[in-house]
Each structure stands twice: as C-alpha cells, then as structure tokens.
Amino acid sequence: MKKWFFALLLLMSVVFASCYEYVEIAESRAMPPYPNYFGAAGEYMHAADCFNSESQYSLAEEYYEKAGDYFVLATTQLIEGGDNFQRAKSLEMAADNYLKAGLETKALNYYNKAKSIYEKFGYGEAVMLVDEKIKKVTHGFEWTPIIGFVSVLALIVSVLGIIYLLAKNSELVSKVNRINKKVEKEEMIVRRSREQFKAPVIVREKKPVKRTTLSPKEKLAKKLREKYMPK
Fold first, then answer.
1. What is the pLDDT of residues 167-221, one digit of tens each?
2. For 189-209, where are the alpha helices, taking DSSP H only?
3. DSSP assignment letter at 76
4. Is residue 176 classed exposed, middle or buried when 0-12, 13-18 and 19+ CB atoms within 10 A define those classes?
5. Which string of DSSP letters, residue by residue, matches 144-190?
6. Are the C-beta atoms of 61 and 102 separated by less than 8 Å?
C-alpha cells in the first residue's frame, strides 16, 4: 500500500514539475518583440491546460489569465497599421483565455475588439467565428441580469415587509397604550349626575309649643272649673 502511495506521489510531482516547466519557458520568453510575448502567452496557456488536466483549477485559471494578458501585451509590439489579422487574432486568443479563467466580461470585451479589426479589414470568415464565440458568452449572460434583478427585488420586498411589520407592531402597541390610558383616565374620573349635586331637602318635625302663661280667656275658664268642680 505504501509503495503505491509513494508511486502516486512521485507521479504527481513529475506531472506538476512538467506543468511548471511551461511556466519557466514562458517567463524566459516574456520580453519584446511581438513573437516573444506571443510565445510566452502560448506557454502560459499550455501550463494552464496542464494544471486543468490535473484538476488544479485555481492554478489553471491563474495561468489562463496570464496567457490572456501576454496575448494582449504582444499586440502592443505590432506596428500600427501593420499585420492587422495577427493583431485581431492575438486579441481573440486573449479573449479565449480570459473566458477559460472565468472572466466573461473581459473576454467579451476582447472578442468585440478582435471582431472590430476583422470587420474593418475585411476578414469576413474570422468575423463569423468570433460572432459565434460572442453568442456563446452572451447566451450565458442572458439569465444573469434577470437573476440579479430578481435577487434585488426579493431583497427590497423583504426589507419593505420587515418595515411594514415593524410599523404595524408599533401602531398596535401605540393603540393599546392609548386604550390603557383612556381606561385609567375613566377609572380616575367619577361621573356624577346633576341631581347628585342638589342640596338634600330636610323635613323637620313640628313639636308642640308649651306655653308658660295663660290668656285671659284661659284664666276665666280655669276659675270657673275651680269654682264649680266638686270638692
């Protein structure tokens, strides 16, 4: 088991070493004039293909992007108005590598630049080939704006929903507080009718008045009673 493991490890190290050999060659060629930059770009592309085949995708993307950069750099070494086909081809290959690196927007930009040169100088067949590549890239983009729009819309709806719920909750709390205050106020105020504020009617009982003096008539009657009363 250990022998198989070490054999596999040795094989992987050999493969990675061969991948980095392309990188070393590319770095040795990375200088003017145009053919050197173009060759360096090709070696970076081979290195990226090698890493990709070994499932080293992050390294593969790194070197695909580097290949794209050097294909673009190579075009700066061409004389303006010189080999227009080669200029457009370098930009097209740069776009191919940017696309492999996952840089779709950058790839589309250089495809369009290459197409513009092909069209300007009458390379019709090359224009059609680049158009096909552009369609493949833009077809992948078709759902991207829609998905982005839907995501933003969903976020806005969620935020508005939260705000609405908070506002409703706040309104409910405020309403409950108002009701509680009203009840408390009503409990504190004792309502009275107008009749309750009238003074009570007091009925006084008339007591007989005791007289201490007799009138002349009463005095005469008293004398008669005394005179004729049997003794």
1. 767 777 777 777 777 766 665 655 666 666 566 666 666 666 565 677 787 878 8
2. none
3. T
4. exposed
5. HHHHHHHHHHHHHHHHHHHHHHHHHHHHHHHHHHHHHHHHHHHHHS-
6. yes
Contact yes or no for 117/91 (Cβ under 8 A): yes
pLDDT, tens only, 21-70:
999 999 999 999 999 999 999 999 999 999 999 999 999 999 999 999 99
Count the alpha carbons within 13 Å of 52 in the hemisphere toward its beta carbon: 14
Angstrom distance (rounded) from CA 101 to CA 154: 31
Greatest Cα pair distance in the chain: 180
- Alpha carbon distances (Å) from 207 to 200, 210, 218: 22, 9, 22
CA 119 to chain CA centroid, nearest Å: 43
Radius of gyration of the chain (CA): 55
Residue 27 token pair:
């770095």
Burial class (CB in 10 A: 0-12, 13-18, 19+), 62: middle
The tokens describing 53, both together, are 């085949």
Angle at 21 between CA 16 and CA 27, to 5 degrees: 130
Cα 22 → chain centroid: 44
Taking each continuous run of H as one helix and of E as one strand, the counts in the chain are: 8, 0
Handedness of CA 50, 52, 58, 60 (dihedral sign): positive
Respond yes or no on whether the N-terminal peptide bond of residue 35 is cis (omega within 30° of 0): no
